[in-house]
Amino acid sequence: MDFALIIGLGGVVLLFAVLRAAQSIRHHKDSERGCDPGTGYHEIEANYHSGGAGGGHSYTFKVPRDPQEYAKTFVPRNKRK
Hints:
By secondary structure, the protein is an alpha+beta fold. It has helices spanning 3-28, 67-72, and strands at residues 41-48, 57-64. It has 2 domains: 1-29; 41-79, no CATH class. The termini are far apart.
């Protein structure tokens, strides 16, 4: 293969990747993840099933909607004020 052809194809692939990334950023800009802060809790249900007849676990836990309260859950208990 010709060296110029390889460089040209590499440039086209790089250009395509950059344009696709820009398109993705523009498309997802207004649809940010997360929720609005507030009071109360979100209830999250986590399920695990190992398949077959039975087996697995289910667990429901609460996550605070307040960002400050949520952040406090990551501070070790002996360091909380």
